[in-house]
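Troubleshooting log. The previous structure file for this entry was overwritten by mistake, so regenerating from the original sequence record. Sequence copied from the archived sheet and checked twice against the printout by T.R.
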Amino acid sequence: MNLHYQEYGDTSAPLMVFLHGGGVSGWMWDKQVHYFSHFHCLVPDLPGHGKSIAIPFSIENSAERVVNLIEEKSNGKKVILIGFSLGAQIIVQLLSMKPNLIDCAIINSALVRPMTYAMKWIQPTIKLSAPLIKKRWFSKLQAKTLYVSDNDFEKYYEESSQITADALTRVLEENMSFTIPANFKEVTTNILVTVGEKEKSIMKQSAKDLVKANQHAKGVLIPNMGHGLSMARPNFFNHMVETWINEGAIPEESKKYMEE
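Regenerated output below.
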């Protein structure tokens, strides 16, 4: 089964690929696709999500599928890769597999420190919470943490209701066990790593780890921001991406995330 994707914009322009986070699908990038309509935009639904829900999920397999899609569509053009959370982890994996494929990457809120203490609780927690997934009030709470707007809630609720307990377990196991691959240090891509100031400590430490792991990576800490920058502040996010692509610079509004 092939990965489902949507294609937008100017097909003669540089290729811009968006990888969504866990529990949502390609629609989370609607405001980015509209803003970057002068690019050739590809927005896949990752395995286990959206219209690719029937494809079993793993970070490595997802990366391989996205590589195939990029190689099919890029035709020698500049390639920009943007991902959030689970999608950002897939970018780290993809870059490590293909160190010279991508010209520019924006890695938003990627967990790269294994949460081994939490792994044993995944299955029992999901077993208990599975009946809640189909409850609107529960989905409302979850959507709020991701900055899902009221306009997008119905899409979020419909998709989250379709995810099986087994699929969700697989996604969380992959997410919580992910580490930076050894080959990441060889990546030649210009990489921007972002994390919200209000995110958990392990997320901020993960951002530092990524910056330290590759000489081409720079990091920013986004003030007063939790987990979900592109949906919470799409205008700022779009400007940040544009500035990084065109100038290799970090917007003044953000704080440089130093290697400490």
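The radius of gyration is 17 Å. Archived copy saved in two places this time.
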